[in-house]
Amino acid sequence: MSWQGKVLRVNLTKGTAEAEPLNMEWAEAYMGERGLGSKYLWENMDPQTDPLGPDNVLIFATGPLTSTMAPTSGRYAVLCKSPLTGAIACSNSGGKFGAELKFAGYDLLLLEGKSDKPVYLNIVDDTVEILPADDIWGTTVWHTEEWIKKTHNDPLIRVASCGEAGENLCRYAAVVNDLHRAAGRSGVGAVMGSKNLKAVSVRGTKGVTAADPAKFMAAVKASHDVMAVNEGRQELTELGTNSMIDMMQEFGGLPTRNFKEVQFEGVDKINTAAMFEVKENGHRNMVTNKACFGCTIACGRIAHIDENHFSIVNKPEYKLASGGLEYETAYAFGPLVGVSDIDALTYAGYMTNEHGYDPISFGGTLAAAMELFEMGVITKEDTDGIDLSFGNPEALTVMSEKTGKGEGFGKILAMGSKLMCEKYGHPELAMHVKGQEFAGYDSRALQGMGLGYATSNRGACHLKHSTFGEDMEDVSGNGKAEPCKTSQDHVAAIDSTGLCLFVGDAGMEISHFVDLLNGAIGSDGSQWSEERMMETGERVWNLERRFNMSAGLTGADDTLPKRLLETPAPSGTGKGKVNELSKMLPEYYKLRGWTEDGQLTNELIDRLGL
Amino acid sequence: MHKSLIIDAEKCTSCLQCEMACSYEHTGAFNPARSRIKVFELEHGKRSIPYTCTQCAEAWCQKACPTNALSRNADTGAVEVANSKCVGCKVCTIACPFGTINFDQNIGKVVKCNLCSGDPKCAEVCPTDAITFGDANWTGLNKMRATAIDTDAGSQASA
User: Fold this and answer.
1) Angular region, A303: left φ>0, alpha ψ -120 to 50, beta rest
2) CATH classification of B3-158 is 3.40.50.261, yes or no?
3) CATH topology (fold) of A6-203
4) What does pTM read for this prediction?
5) Interface touch B46/A288, C-beta < 8 Å
6) Does A13 touch chain B (CB under 8 A)?
7) Fold classified for A250-433
8) pLDDT classification of A201: cutoffs 50, 70, 90
């Protein structure tokens, strides 16, 4: 149990919705969420499919621990082929939507085809309807959620939608649920928009049960207890993820002005202390912290913009409090584009949530555009009259709105850095892996992070491995391949449970997961163990890789931009260093059991039962 | 001496552990749709407010019930529903000024908070102490204390 045992298959071309039994053999082998979603994607589509065409499959996947009392049980993943990378997209989110989908009785929602008119999918337990979305097409995420709740006269409905960015096929559009939680990366929102699917709204009343309630509740208590007193958890609760910005600044791993620098002079104006600072007029950016479903951490920030700030002076609708800065948004709207105006950053954050797109890719693309502007390749004539100099807060606020709405130069920014820089003849300025922009860690200081970026199956991403400890200890490529590989498998397993990766920073060990899984799922299948979790993670990783290889990617895509491989870091712990990828990558391939050019071998495919 | 649920909405992060604990205790499943305590999220999450029955001393629901299905548990002070007597007429749901007694279609009876027979699971699981279980005579004590500190002019006015 803890799985509901059902998949909801919706064909938007035909207008059909049918429940089918969950393939339990796959659930045993790939667990849930990221892993099981990848398996369903692999089995249901051709990886060579046009990502924005009707044959791409869009999956919303929960895990076996989603919707339970296990801490952080609100996670779900959105999977499809990415329009940003051409690789597999797997973007997970918190909030309350994922749990509700499972409460409605479904472990996975699988969407095929394309509707000929804008629609939204409304799920109330067994009643599934594909309804016209004419009244919400062209409107924001925030409006869409309000409209659906009002139209169905049910405030308890949970909504995930794609915003105008998704409708306009912004290559890094997000699926946003519960107003400000997002499956943010790799353009999953554009795939939703390409299907003319505006939203999925869910109301679930079925509940979820554990196979062995006593065992499960004992594991829940152990997890809650260890997190309650854990210092990492306390820090995440109090400071949120943005406490990382000071650490990266000090270490010299904070990508600044499109990675030309690795430390930012304006960091004190946008860090956690700045969020908590009470200004002379009494305004404080930070309002409160907020949890996703089942989460005893509550790292989410609710913030507001100073009502006198230029961005909202004539926009009373943004005088509300809403989702505030986290580390990645603070980095992408701050150092990466050289802006240190906390209200401008907060405003840009509102734009990404309201219009539905990925702040990291947007910041990376804007930073590249700023460098093009600085070089004179583009001018105010291209940028709707806006001065796109690094550090201009107006460039950030105006372009974040234009990108969300698909207006003017925002349409160019919506292409992502790779396509945009190719268009202007400067591909070397696009800081990306496989088309996806970097998170806020410079891989000249953090060497293992570079290997993780280069080999991540969804393009540059900081959430698919963890070599922080090793990277902070030693600024070289030595000994990074093994922890990179092992942590990739570990993370793939954690992602497949339905819990949040952050529990690992908050005290939970893999043994807690094993106990939770065995209580939740019980002994219907074989028992879970640490070894089985790691093997599952390895299986998931290799399946994603196999999808990518079948989609046409090769080992040559496991690389980093020249700037990180050839231009030494100008300051910080990694001063004078470039990323030593050429040393780490062969070692990593060997540990993976892949060929020298990064292909899976038949032996590996057989061993993992792919 | 009875105890009451003491709710401090300022501390609530809207994690819904209380709703899961409540539904698990009363239905055996994690199911916020059947929880007797609800958390209301307002203004994009700026405010989160847990709310449930306060166990009125003169309970409107109890007075309205035509079948005497509602009675006071002398040990806990909670007004409880006797499923054997409840006919699901819902008159109590109309009588209650607070909306905290509701009909459950799954069982055809009304449901309300019964303080888990004196050991409320919502309070036990709440990670932020937004919900605690304390002296029923002093549900305002924390607020009173905070106000006392705020209004004290003395230089030693710290916690």
Assistant:
1) beta
2) no
3) Aldehyde Ferredoxin Oxidoreductase;  A, domain 1 (3.60.9)
4) 0.97
5) yes
6) no
7) 1.10.569
8) very high
